[in-house]
Amino acid sequence: MKKLPLIGLTILSFFVGFSVNATEVVCVDGNELIKDSQYAQQLKQEIEVKKQQIIAKYRQEAQKLIEQLQKLQKELSSGLLSPEAKKQKQEEYIKLQQKLQFLQIQAQQEVQKYISQQLRKLDKLTKAALKVLAKVKGFDMVADCNNLLYYSANVDITKDVARVIDQMVQKNKWGEE
């Protein structure tokens, strides 16, 4: 019987200790952050412009390959080629198709690489803004609002983070190389 009060006292002291040392959690909504931050909007526009430039560059090369493929297709369907010449043209056709596919993959990879670089910049800046806000507001942990089942509106600091990001960019105080 003496063990029961001791366990109850231990549990009670745990909860008292926990409430004294409670961790303050806030959340940020990444989608809203991109909408709320002028810098993020600017970055989004830059990404779109660069994406179009990359696509245009590869589109020109792809168009040349497509024209070559069409020419080969006409030659192959003409029926005027010897079996040896037809085999050679088919091999050439396959190589051009592969080259076109490789070009498409290259374009996609270049776009993804650029997007990743820009998102890393935003991520670095967001983390710097969160450190500043943590010192000012005194929170200990930040979660993604979209991954929480429930949260009160007063723990959503998205607008504050967007404001600090924009201020840091204006003052260039976030350590961008």
Describe the structure in your own words:
- By secondary structure, the chain is mainly alpha-helical.
- The protein has one domain.
- 76% of the residues lie in helices and 5% in strands.
- It is built from five helices and two strands, in the order αβαααβα.
- The protein has a two-stranded parallel sheet.
- α2 packs across α3, α2 crosses α5 and α4 crosses α5.
- The chain is elongated, with a radius of gyration of 29 Å.
- The chain starts with a helix and ends in a 6-residue tail after the last helix.
List keywords for this structure.
mainly alpha, 5 helices, elongated, disordered N terminus
Count of individual helical segments: 5
Shape: elongated
Number of strands: 2
Helical fraction: over 70%
Q: N- to C-terminal separation? A: 66 Å
Proportion of β residues?
Answer: under 5%
Q: Structural class, from helix and strand content?
A: mainly alpha
Please give the radius of gyration in angstroms.
29 Å
Estimate the mean pLDDT confidence: 86
